[in-house]
Q: What sequence folds into this?
């Protein structure tokens, strides 16, 4: 199987190559795609070195799968061209997520909606993926009514430029090319992505719209505040979830303990709770600080953490590809 990685030298693309190292996909060749600045560079996967090529060449190279992580503009232009050549595109940008005929997939939740006619498949937003991984089993049993979300998002979610900004600020170096309008080191910015006309940021509205689509639950009330924090390597979320029916904390814990891809870390007596420092480099979603909201009936507080470059991006995309392969929806 030939697999293209579009944006292979970027933060998510680099992580995709790492995840592909351990994938079940029978990869014979990686087609590494980058911008004009990256042409001629090399990437390594499964012990093989590959030269970075351009989109035009890659689109005609006979790839079974193309993992896109090069931004929405590139995806809008090139995903249809890859698809027209018979390649199944799994896109990590926001370009296709809310298109009605494009599935928005977290494999553990809704991979069953996929079929062999789907040539463009959307990978959800990083902060959405980790949250719905935890909420889905609870929603199926107790019925979600409303969510109040506050995120604490790593600078790696913005990209290498933001990571460099935080490093330079931490070293007292004049920032060469800032990603943010303000200092991020020793600071928090209530500003993830661009502001919309309703006063919310695009990131906040992704949490609203994508959650409803993935859970197939358009009636859930959702409000969100997304905050960028000086962390490199994991997003954290405080989620207040109101349900239709009652529950016990032990029911919640037991349900989450048996959910594939979710790890419960919830023992305050031993200071056991999820942290981005510990989640970095892992594919699982971690949940803790599970407790009843004493101010409102049938309501729960959760603290959810995951590596945004892993399950929030690269791992989820590769898992979609693996599902398609296992189900015989893509050919080698």
A:
């Amino acid at each position: 199987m030939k697999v293209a990685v579009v944006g292979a030298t970027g933060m998510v693309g680099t992580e995709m190559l790492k995840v592909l190292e351990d994938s079940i996909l029978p990869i014979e060749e990686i087609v590494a795609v980058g911008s004009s600045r990256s042409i001629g560079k090399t990437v390594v996967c499964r012990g093989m070195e590959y030269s970075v090529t351009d989109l035009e060449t890659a689109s005609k190279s006979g790839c079974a799968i193309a993992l896109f992580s090069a931004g929405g503009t590139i995806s809008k232009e090139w995903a249809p061209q890859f698809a027209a050549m018979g390649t199944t595109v799994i896109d990590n940008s926001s370009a296709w997520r809310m298109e009605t005929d494009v599935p928005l997939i977290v494999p553990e939740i809704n991979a069953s909606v996929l079929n062999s006619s789907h040539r463009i498949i959307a990978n959800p937003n990083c902060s959405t993926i980790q949250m719905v991984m935890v909420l889905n089993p609870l929603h199926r049993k107790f019925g979600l009514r409303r969510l109040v979300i506050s995120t604490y998002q790593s600078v790696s979610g913005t990209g290498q430029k933001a990571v460099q900004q935080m490093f330079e600020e931490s070293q007292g170096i004049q920032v060469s090319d800032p990603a943010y309008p303000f200092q991020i080191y020793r600071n928090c910015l209530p500003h993830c992505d661009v502001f919309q006309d309703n006063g919310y940021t695009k990131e906040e509205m992704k949490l609203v719209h994508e959650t409803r689509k993935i859970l197939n639950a358009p009636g859930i009330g959702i409000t969100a505040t997304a905050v960028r924090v000086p962390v490199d390597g994991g997003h954290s979320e405080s989620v207040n979830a109101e349900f239709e029916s009652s529950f016990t904390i032990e029911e919640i814990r037991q349900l989450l303990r048996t959910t594939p891809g979710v790890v419960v870390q919830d023992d305050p007596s031993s200071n056991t709770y999820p942290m981005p420092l510990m989640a970095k480099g892992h594919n699982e979603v971690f949940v803790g600080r599970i407790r009843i909201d004493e101010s409102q009936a049938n309501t729960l507080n959760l603290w959810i953490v995951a590596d945004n470059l892993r399950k929030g991006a690269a791992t989820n995309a590769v898992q979609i590809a693996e599902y398609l392969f296992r189900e015989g929806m893509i050919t080698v």
Q: What stands out?
A: The CA atoms of residues 290 and 302 lie 5 Å apart. The mean pLDDT is 97. The first strand starts at residue 2 and ends at 6. The domain at 2-124+313-326 is CATH 3.40.50.720 (Rossmann fold).
